[in-house]
């Protein structure tokens, strides 16, 4: 089922790109792309605008539905989710003990005072 949705998703995505590229800008004349006045009869008396806009809208709706479906499939496969609105917590993490040891090595204290230079006596 997931494979079918992925295939439909990719086909619809390519279709949206094609439909958007076929549409003309606000200031563009239809005759510029199809030649003279014959372009008005290619998609019917109302022109290509209504057909392309409706096809793009339907493709976008299908794209959003397939995107939502794939997100639900991905969430179910990952095991993530929530129970009664609360996040699912891994109990092993909560029960781990934290060691008191640090990664930073400690300096060894020596009782030998000969390493410290004496201050000069200014009396």
Entry summary:
The chain contains four helices and two strands. By secondary structure, it is mainly α. It starts with a helix and ends in a 28-residue tail after the last helix.
Which secondary structure elements does this structure contain, and how are they paired or packed?
Elements: H1 2-22, H2 30-34, H3 48-78, E1 82-83, E2 86-87, H4 91-95
Antiparallel strand pairs: 1-2
Characteristics:
123 residues, mainly alpha, 4 helices, 2 strands, 3% strand, elongated
Can you offer a commentary on this structure?
By secondary structure, the chain is mainly alpha-helical. The protein has a domain at 1-19 and 37-79. Helix content is 50%, strand content 3%. The chain contains four helices and two strands. The protein has helices at 2-22, 30-34, 48-78, 91-95; strands at residues 82-83, 86-87. Strands 1-2 form a two-stranded antiparallel ribbon. Helix 1 runs antiparallel to helix 3. The longest helix is centred in the middle third of the chain and has 31 residues, at 48-78. It is elongated and about 105 Å long.
